[in-house]
């Protein structure tokens, strides 16, 4: 197992956001976590990646207990992350964003006053090509179309050379065409690099097209976990998530 989440608990002012969640993810597995708005999906990701501190529980990543580590240390161990809201340097070019991530991963300092143009150019170009942004490398990131900004965020995550990717709503706000292209890209990269993928997604066609296993979160609790067909047929999932009972 590359990830083990054990009895994870998190509350906010008495509201139980995550209520004793347990699950594991195998190395190389493609897993989705779905659930209604407010189910706790982003909170769960924030706990796993060290952006929030837990009240109780344990998280083990690649045989290392990361329960009390901050986000920077978790990332350095190989757990990459993207966010619902775009998380890029909007005033830097596309190339500079990727280069900054590579520099950070390689332990080099990055600031706006030190010349860094010669550093890790080959590595940066390789990532840009892989995420389909080579033609946009000199554009200011904040001026990119939304779909390209999401691809850039994926490139930044890849620059950290992760063993596992956590993608929070990777196609949110995208058109149908952008969604298809992004999911195909993610699937290709994950298989090509042998990565483990755990993602949240609102688009069920995306979830069922790429996932090997789906976990369903409702009111901070996991109510189902299994292959897509099994989860689709689960009466409790139909009732609380899809709004129907068959």
What is the compact description of this entry?
By secondary structure, this protein is an alpha/beta fold. Helices cover 35% and strands 24% of the residues.
Calculate the terminal CA-CA distance, rounded to whole Å. Answer: 35 Å
The largest pleated sheet is described as: 6 strands, mixed
Number of strands: 10
Shape: globular
| SSE ordering | EEEHEEHEHHHEHEHEEHH
Low-confidence stretches: none
Strand order of the largest sheet: 6-7-8-3-9-10
Q: How much strand content do the residues show?
A: 15-25%
Q: Quaternary state, please?
A: single chain
Mean pLDDT: 88
In terms of structural class, how would the helical and strand content be classed? alpha/beta
Instruction: Give Rg in angstroms.
Output: 18 Å
Question: How much helix, percentage-wise, in residues?
Answer: 25-40%
* Number of helical elements: 9
Architecture overview:
The mean pLDDT is 88. The chain has nine helices and ten strands. α3 crosses α4 (121-130), α3 (94-105) packs parallel to α5 (146-159) and α4 (121-130) crosses α5. The protein has helices at 41-48, 71-76, 94-105, 121-130, 146-159, 176-193, 204-210, 228-232, 235-240; strands spanning 3-12, 15-25, 30-34, 56-61, 64-65, 79-82, 164-168, 196-200, 213-218, 221-226. The protein is α/β, with parallel strands linked by helices and 246 residues long. The strands form two sheets. It has a six-stranded mixed β-sheet with strand order 6-7-8-3-9-10, with helices on both faces. The protein has a four-stranded antiparallel β-sheet with strand order 2-1-4-5, with helices on one face.
């Amino acid at each position: 197992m590359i990830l083990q989440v054990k009895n994870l608990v998190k509350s906010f002012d008495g509201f139980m956001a995550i209520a004793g969640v347990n699950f594991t993810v195998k190395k190389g597995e493609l897993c989705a976590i779905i659930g209604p708005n407010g189910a706790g999906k982003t909170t769960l990701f924030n706990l796993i990646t060290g952006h929030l501190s837990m009240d109780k529980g344990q998280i083990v990543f690649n045989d290392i207990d990361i329960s009390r580590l901050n986000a920077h240390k978790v990332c350095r161990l190989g757990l990459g992350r993207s966010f619902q809201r775009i998380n890029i340097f909007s005033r830097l070019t596309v190339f500079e964003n990727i280069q900054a991530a590579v520099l950070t991963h390689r332990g080099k300092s990055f600031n706006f006053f030190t010349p860094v143009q010669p550093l890790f150019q080959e590595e940066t170009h390789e990532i840009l090509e892989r995420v389909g942004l080579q033609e946009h490398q000199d554009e200011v990131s904040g001026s990119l179309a939304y779909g390209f900004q999401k691809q850039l965020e994926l490139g930044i995550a890849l620059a950290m050379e992760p063993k596992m990717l956590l993608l929070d709503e990777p196609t949110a706000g995208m058109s149908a065409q952008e969604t298809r292209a992004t999911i195909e890209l993610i699937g290709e990269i994950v298989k090509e690099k042998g990565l483990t993928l755990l993602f949240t997604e609102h688009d069920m066609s995306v979830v069922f097209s790429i996932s090997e296993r789906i976990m369903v979160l409702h009111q901070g609790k996991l109510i189902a976990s299994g292959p897509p067909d099994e989860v689709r047929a689960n009466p409790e999932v139909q009732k609380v998530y899809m709004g129907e009972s068959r």
